[in-house]
Amino acid sequence: MGGGTTFLDLGLTYASSPVSDTNRVFLLPVDDSWTVSFGIAHNASKNLTYSLGGAVVISGNASVDQTSQGFRTIGEFSTNLAFVLGATLQWRF
Q1: Would you list the domain boundaries of the chain?
Q2: pTM
Q3: Mind listing the pLDDT tens digit of every residue in the chain (93 residues)?
Q4: 3-class SS of residue 16
Q5: How far apart are CA 53 and CA 65, in angstroms?
C-alpha cells in the first residue's frame, strides 16, 4: 500500500433477541444474533485516508405466531444472514 500507516479492525458482537417469541412479527423475524466485522484503513498521506470494511450478521432461527386483522399466521424462519460492505475516502484540506 505504499508509505503511511495501515490499521486493521476486527470485531465480534452478540445481541439477544429484541423481542420475546410471543411478540415476534413477520416484519422483523430475528432471534439472537452474532455479528462478525472487519475493516482496513490506510493513511496514504497527511491529507488522505481510505478504508474498506464489512460485516456479516447471523440471526438465529425464529418462530412467528401472529394474528392480524383476524387472520393467524404461524411459521418458522431459518437462519437469516445480512452482508454489509462499506468504503470511505477522507481528504483533509
Answers
A1: 5-91
A2: 0.70
A3: 567 899 999 999 999 887 777 777 777 777 888 999 999 999 999 899 999 999 999 988 888 888 888 888 888 888 888 999 999 999 998
A4: coil
A5: 37
